[in-house]
Design a protein that fits this description.
Blueprint (H helix, E strand, L loop, with lengths): L9 H13 L4 H13 L1 H18 L11 H4 L4
Length: 77
C-alpha cells in the first residue's frame, strides 16, 4: 500500500478529524474510500459481486427445489 502526503488547511483538518471521530472513522479511512471510489475500485468490486450472484442464479444446484435442514448442513463425519 502506498503513502500519500497532502497539504490541508489546519482548520479544515481539525473539523474533518472531529467529524470523522463522530462518525466512528478516521480522515485517513475517508480519504482512502474516496480515492477507491474515484479510481473505480469499488465499481470493480460491485461488478465482481454481481457476476458471482448471476452465476449463483444460473447454477444447476438451485434447480429441483432441494433444501437442507440445519442439521444436514452442519453434519460432521
Amino acid at each position: 500500500m502506498g503513502n500519500l502526503t497532502i497539504k490541508v488547511d489546519d482548520e479544515s483538518l481539525k473539523k474533518a478529524r472531529l467529524r470523522a471521530l463522530e462518525e466512528g472513522t478516521s480522515v485517513n479511512a475517508l480519504l482512502r474510500e474516496y480515492l477507491d471510489a474515484y479510481a473505480g475500485v469499488n465499481r470493480a468490486r460491485k461488478e465482481a459481486v454481481n457476476e458471482v450472484l448471476a452465476l449463483a442464479r444460473r447454477s444447476k444446484a438451485r434447480r429441483g427445489g432441494r433444501t437442507w435442514t440445519r442439521e444436514e448442513l452442519h453434519e460432521r463425519k
